């Protein structure tokens, strides 16, 4: 018991720090989550050791376990590392803005070209799409068909002209037409190929794009890292589009792309349709990669709602048995702020099995309890013993709150019992035996 008391105090004084031992398991979990999300191993290692360094010694928020808090720190850092949300496409001072698409075959370059064109059109920026994939049969037709769908013109010169030449003439055409943006779709190979790289580099040198976007399939997995490195070193990218995020992939490729190139992910593809393009939100991607959203939410809520100094004052009161109905009300409101009881319980491992009925009942009881406390005078709230002694006070509260005298008596008895218990435990929270709580 004394030990628990001491623990409680340590936590309160903020001496409970994140240490290598108290986050060991969480570290393992995070590493596993990242690898499962297909983040490149090297990226995982670098990322984790950075975060661990940052986290060690951090004070633990009261009411949260150090390992849970660590996951939150990882999450925050992940969001941070992932870069800007909604990074805009380049826009040239004098049109046309030139966007060059790069990537392996089948990643979704041609589709993304049309998606971007549609997106820009909605932003009232006119487009021309340029078909330079002369290798894959029907690649040009594919772009033409997409162009018809979204009502955006396509520039092509058939399969017998050199892609560099097509790109060059495409940009000239865009200038002539006076369109705002020209998007150059390119050919890809199944694997990184020196010939393809050379051709792409040549196109880039010729058209001098304002944006060079690497299109990466979210399913690429570990390979995304090598891929990004090669493209970035040899071509130089200014952003990326991660496609096929509508699949099961957890999106680890996004982290690899970002970490290795340092360039923003500008959009994600979420389907085969031309409308299936979304801006990139680092927080959503971080949640998806970590797949530990629940813990993160819990810690966030705790962080938002628990005012440390308030909690400390409360603990002191508990230890000195000065805890009164005012404090109780505060605790109840805290609980409310943290969302419905059911919502909070669901976030706690092992608690999610409590049936909805029981929780519903708990919430109703909490409301009734609050009504009774609201009917108490300030003096009574501050000095619960007054109520224990006076039946007439209890009667008045019963009438005021619309509850029976028996209910009021029970609340006061429960409260007194709880206060004694809390004092004994030396712990706040008031969860066990808290009046109005099921169980
Ligand atoms: P490219 O070889 O890089 O030009 O790739 P394509 O644009 O031809 O796309 C290859 C395949 O992926 C096609 O069947 C597309 O419909 C599909 N695709 C492209 N983007 C997405 C996406 O975001 N989600 C899904 N589910 N499929 C996509
Ligand atoms: Mg293509």
Describe the structure.
The protein has 439 residues and is of the alpha/beta class. It folds into three domains: 16-84, Up-down Bundle (Four Helix Bundle (Hemerythrin (Met), subunit A)); 97-280, P-loop containing nucleotide triphosphate hydrolases (Rossmann fold, 3-Layer(aba) Sandwich), CATH 3.40.50.300; 307-425, Orthogonal Bundle (434 Repressor (Amino-terminal Domain)), CATH 1.10.260.30. It has 20 helices and eight strands. It has an eight-stranded mixed sheet, sandwiched between helices. Strand 5 (211-217), helix 9 (223-234) and strand 6 form a beta-alpha-beta unit. Helix 2 runs parallel beside helix 4, helix 4 packs across helix 12 (293-305) and helix 19 crosses helix 20. The chain starts with a helix and ends in a 14-residue tail after the last helix. Magnesium ion (MG) binds at residues 109-110, 133, 139.
């Amino acid at each position: 018991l004394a030990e628990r008391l001491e623990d409680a105090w340590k936590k309160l004084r903020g001496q409970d720090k994140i240490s290598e031992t108290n986050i060991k398991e969480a570290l393992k979990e995070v590493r596993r989550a990242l690898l499962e999300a297909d983040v490149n191993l090297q990226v995982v290692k670098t990322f984790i050791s950075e975060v661990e360094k940052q986290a060690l010694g951090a004070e633990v928020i009261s009411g949260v376990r150090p390992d849970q808090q660590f996951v939150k720190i990882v999450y925050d850092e992940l969001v941070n590392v992932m870069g800007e949300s909604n990074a805009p496409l380049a826009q040239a001072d004098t049109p046309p803005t030139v966007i060059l698409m790069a990537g392996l075959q089948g990643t979704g370059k041609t589709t993304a070209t049309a998606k971007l064109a549609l997106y820009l059109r909605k932003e009232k920026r006119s487009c021309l799409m340029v078909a330079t994939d002369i290798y894959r049969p029907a690649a040009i037709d594919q772009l033409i068909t997409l162009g018809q769908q979204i009502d955006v013109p396509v520039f092509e010169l058939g399969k017998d002209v050199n892609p560099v030449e097509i790109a060059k003439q495409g940009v000239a055409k865009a200038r002539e037409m006076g369109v705002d943006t020209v998007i150059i779709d390119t050919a890809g190979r199944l694997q990184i190929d020196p010939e393809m790289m050379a051709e792409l580099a040549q196109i880039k040198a010729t058209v001098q794009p304002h944006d060079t976007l690497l299109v990466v399939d979210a399913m690429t997995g570990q390979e995304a890292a090598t891929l990004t490195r090669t493209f970035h070193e040899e071509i130089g990218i200014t952003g990326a589009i991660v496609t096929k995020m509508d699949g099961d992939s957890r999106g680890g490729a996004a982290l690899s792309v970002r970490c290795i190139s340092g360039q923003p992910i500008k959009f994600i593809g979420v389907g085969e349709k031309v409308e299936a393009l979304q801006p990139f939100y680092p927080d959503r991607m971080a949640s998806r990669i970590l797949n530990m959203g629940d813990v993160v939410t819990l810690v966030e809520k705790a962080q938002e709602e628990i005012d440390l100094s308030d909690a400390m004052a409360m603990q002191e009161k508990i230890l000195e048995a000065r805890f009164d109905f005012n404090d109780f009300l505060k605790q109840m409101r805290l609980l409310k702020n943290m969302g419905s009881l059911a919502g909070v319980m669901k976030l706690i491992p092992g608690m999610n099995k409590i049936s909805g009925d029981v929780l519903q009942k708990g919430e109703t009881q909490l409301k009734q309890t609050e009504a009774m406390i609201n009917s108490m005078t300030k003096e009574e709230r501050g000095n619960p013993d007054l109520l224990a002694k006076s039946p007439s006070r209890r009667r008045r509260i019963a009438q005021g709150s619309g509850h029976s005298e028996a209910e009021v008596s029970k609340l006061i008895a429960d409260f007194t019992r709880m206060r004694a218990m809390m004092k004994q435990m030396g712990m706040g929270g008031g969860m066990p035996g808290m009046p109005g709580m099921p169980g």
